[in-house]
């Protein structure tokens, strides 16, 4: 079993190296604007549409970057990690493209649509109970049994790959005041911080967590990684119980703050995105939009990373049964080049 690397001194150069690796392998996702959204928030919002990335989330960036760096020996043994769903799909596809096999440890309550996609890409799935079992220990045991290359979702290469999404946003919209990203274990936020510090340090970076899943908020307040009880939130991709080893030092240094949103705020944001923007988001992917709609993001020109769109059909039906307002047939957003 290969182990996690020692703490890596991440920098802007890691993000640039990742972007060089990823050229041609990922979508350069568009940035949308919406006059109706701007009127409602009295801000200018620039929506980075990572729900249009391969496998439906930004996770493919880091997954492909990491697996492309594996040695032939490591690829022959296969890879193993743990995920709530989006990283599982991303690793499964990246493993297929890099000629290796993926095993993913997922919570038993992982969304069905994410499980089906992960299996479709050829990965093996192992289930654990997130309320009773420690996912890291579970994954370590599984990797030891298989001799697989084990890594966590805040591996330095994954952080650097995630940061390329924000690097693109900064290139497309260079005069932003703030950027807001969702926070789980903190890898995306850390990558965003690195991209901003190297490209335009004056831009403020804020993270968004669901109420009841504020492990990063608590950890930042205490200035040390702090574990919380298993979070209960509809945003399954943001149910981290402790910040990542590699991501937390970066976020402690550069994040301007954590913005909390309720599940009700997230549901309202999903409805708004579908009705007024013709964008379908999963709960985790809508958290940043929720913070914007609730007036919690400082600044006038805001970059908003929409992280994923892998939403279950059953969830959509339940959501719309509780709100009968018709969806607008007209898109009010436009693509920025």
Automatic annotation (TrEMBL):
Cofactor(s) of this protein: pyridoxal 5'-phosphate; Mg(2+); Mn(2+); Ca(2+)
Q: Do you know which InterPro entries this protein is assigned to? A: Ser/Thr_deHydtase_PyrdxlP-BS, TrpB-like_PALP, TrpB-like_PALP_sf
Ordered alphabetically, the record's keywords are: Lyase, Magnesium, Pyridoxal phosphate
Give all residue intervals belonging to the Tryptophan synthase beta chain-like PALP domain. 24-308
Enzymatic reactions: L-threonine = 2-oxobutanoate + NH4(+)
Pfam families from the UniProt entry: PALP
Q: Does the keyword Manganese apply?
A: no
Q: Which GO terms describe its molecular function?
A: ATP binding; L-serine ammonia-lyase activity; magnesium ion binding; pyridoxal phosphate binding; serine racemase activity; threonine deaminase activity; threonine racemase activity
Highest taxon listed in the record's lineage:
Bacteria
An example Gene Ontology biological process:
D-serine biosynthetic process
Q: What is its EC number?
A: 4.3.1.19
Please give the function described in this protein's UniProt entry. Catalyzes the anaerobic formation of alpha-ketobutyrate and ammonia from threonine in a two-step reaction. The first step involved a dehydration of threonine and a production of enamine intermediates (aminocrotonate), which tautomerizes to its imine form (iminobutyrate). Both intermediates are unstable and short-lived. The second step is the nonenzymatic hydrolysis of the enamine/imine intermediates to form 2-ketobutyrate and free ammonia. In the low water environment of the cell, the second step is accelerated by RidA.
Q: Which family does it belong to?
A: Belongs to the serine/threonine dehydratase family.
Name it: threonine ammonia-lyase
């Amino acid at each position: 079993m290969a182990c996690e690397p020692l703490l890596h001194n991440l920098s802007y150069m890691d993000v640039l190296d990742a972007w060089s690796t990823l050229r041609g392998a990922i979508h350069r996702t568009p940035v949308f604007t919406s006059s109706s959204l701007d009127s409602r928030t009295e801000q200018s919002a620039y929506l980075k549409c990572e729900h249009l990335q391969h496998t439906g989330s930004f996770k493919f960036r880091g997954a492909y970057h990491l697996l492309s760096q594996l040695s032939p020996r490591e690829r022959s043994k296969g890879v193993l990690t743990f995920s709530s769903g989006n990283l599982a799909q991303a690793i499964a596809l990246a493993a297929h493209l890099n000629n290796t096999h993926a095993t993913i440890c997922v919570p038993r309550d992982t969304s069905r649509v994410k499980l089906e996609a992960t299996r479709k890409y050829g990965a093996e799935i192992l289930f654990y109970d997130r309320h009773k079992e420690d996912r890291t220990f579970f994954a370590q045991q599984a990797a030891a049994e298989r001799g697989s290359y084990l890594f966590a979702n805040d591996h330095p290469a994954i952080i650097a790959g995630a940061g390329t999404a924000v690097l693109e946003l900064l290139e497309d919209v260079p005069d932003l005041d703030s950027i807001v990203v969702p926070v789980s274990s903190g890898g995306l936020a850390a990558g965003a911080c690195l991209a901003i510090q190297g490209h335009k340090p004056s831009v403020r970076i804020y993270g968004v967590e669901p109420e009841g899943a504020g492990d990063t908020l608590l950890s930042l307040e205490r200035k040390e990684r702090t574990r919380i009880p298993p979070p209960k939130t509809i945003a399954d991709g943001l149910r981290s119980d402790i910040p990542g080893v590699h991501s937390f030092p970066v976020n402690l240094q550069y994040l301007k703050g954590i913005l909390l949103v309720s599940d009700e705020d997230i549901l309202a944001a999903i409805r708004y995105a579908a009705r007024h923007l013709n964008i379908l988001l999963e709960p985790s992917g809508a958290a940043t939009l929720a913070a914007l709609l609730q007036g919690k993001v400082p600044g006038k020109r805001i970059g908003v990373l929409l992280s994923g769109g892998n939403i279950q059909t059953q969830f959509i039906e339940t959501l719309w049964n509780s709100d009968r307002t018709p969806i607008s047939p007209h898109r009010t957003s436009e693509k920025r080049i």
